[in-house]
Amino acid sequence: MVSFQYTVKDPEGLHIRPAGSLVKCAQRCTSTINIEKDGNKVDAKRLFAVMGLCVKQNDTITFLFEGENEQKDCETLKSFCYKNI
């Protein structure tokens, strides 16, 4: 298992547009990917689950990866986060 933490910089937080793009990016990965915030863990490949975390600006979220390509998938999502949210 690999993981990384990211602090959301978008003034609107993880709203529908970036959340949808994040989910699409996660769905292209082969690993099991979860996002954790304040003790709640959700499937990063499910839009309503991600939206349910209510991530605001300056919130720190943790991405957890498990699978054969976990390192590659981790780098893919990390790159997405730094460019988009």
Characterization of the model:
This protein is an alpha+beta fold. The protein contains 3 helices and 4 strands. It has helices at residues 16-27, 47-51, 70-84, and strands at 2-7, 32-37, 40-43, 60-66. The mean pLDDT is 97.
Key phrases:
alpha+beta; 85 residues; 4 strands
- Spans of at least 5 consecutive residues with low confidence: none
Could you give the count of β-strands? 4
The major β-sheet equals: 4 strands, antiparallel
Structural class: alpha+beta
Strand content: 25-35%
Q: Sketch the topology as an H/E string, one letter per element.
A: EHEEHEH
CATH class: Alpha Beta
Number of distinct helices: 3
CATH superfamily: HPr-like
Gross geometry: globular
CATH third-level topology: Histidine-containing Protein, Chain: A
Q: What's the SSE blueprint?
A:
Blueprint lengths: L1 E6 L8 H12 L4 E6 L2 E4 L3 H5 L8 E7 L3 H15 L1
Antiparallel strand pairs: 1-4, 2-3, 2-4
The gist of it:
The protein is of the alpha+beta class and 85 residues long.
